From TrEMBL:
The lineage of its organism: Archaea, Thermoproteota, Thermoprotei, Desulfurococcales, Desulfurococcaceae. One of its GO terms (biological process) is regulation of translational fidelity. Residues 51-70 are annotated as: Disordered. Gene3D superfamilies: Glu-tRNAGln amidotransferase C subunit, N-terminal domain (1.10.20.60). Residues 7-41 form a coiled coil. This is Aspartyl/glutamyl-tRNA amidotransferase subunit C. It comes from Ignicoccus pacificus DSM 13166. Keywords: Coiled coil. InterPro entries: Asp/Glu-ADT_sf_sub_c, GatC. The keyword Coiled coil applies. Pfam families: GatC (PF02686). Signal peptide: none annotated.
Amino acid sequence: MKVDARKAIALAKIKMSEGEIERLQKDLDEMVELFQKLLEDEEIEGFEPMYTPSEALNPSRPDKPGETLGESWLYLVPRKEEIEREGKKGVYVKSPRP
């Protein structure tokens, strides 16, 4: 397997010098080689796949419906108003001031 550093750079939309590209290509080649060696050397048959790196349970709370804010937060939403400014008519957003 070969990873093309130039393609990765293009997908990431970053700019790199030729020297940086060469170093990145070398690093990617070494990583792929390491993974291939690990897969060849280690016995991986019979293991269940891990979906997370730890066995910790999800510490989040259960999703139960509760009290809502109602309309008490609407003052935060900017309002659109049709305003005439400097002889130009248009729709402007008027945001609330603290």
